[in-house]
Amino acid sequence: MVRALALLLAQLAAAPIVSETVATGDRGAIDLATFECRDIDRSTVLQRVCYDRARHDLVVATSGGYARYCGVAAETVDRLLGAPSMGQFFNRHIRREAAGGRYDCSA
Fold this sequence. Notes:
- It is a single chain.
- The protein has a 4-stranded antiparallel sheet, covered by helices on one side. Strands 1-2 form a two-stranded antiparallel ribbon.
- It has helices at 2-14, 74-82, 86-93, 96-99; strands spanning 21-23, 29-31, 36-39, 46-52, 57-62, 65-70.
- By secondary structure, the protein is an alpha+beta fold.
- A hairpin with a 5-residue loop joins β1 and β2.
- It starts with a helix and ends in an 8-residue tail after the last helix.
- The protein contains 4 helices and 6 strands.
- The radius of gyration is 17 Å and the shape is globular.
C-alpha cells in the first residue's frame, strides 16, 4: 500500500503542469493561467466564474458554454459572488444584452 502511494506521488510530481484553456465560441480560446476560478454550486445560471484582477477580464460558464467579458471591475465581480441570486445579478448587470455591450471585448 505504501509502495503504491509512493509510486502515485512520484507520477504526480513528474507530470507536466498544463494550464487550462476554454473555448468561448466567437471570441476564441482563453488560457485561464492568470485567472482565479470558482466552481459555482448555488446558481442555476452560473456554473463557473473565472476572473483576472490585473486585466479585469471575467469568464463565466453558463448553460455549458463559456463567455468572456472585458473591463469588469473587481467590485462588480465581488458583488456578483456575494449576491443572494448570482444569476439575477449576472443577468441584470453583466450579461451583454443587459449591459448594452459595456463589457464587450475588442479582440
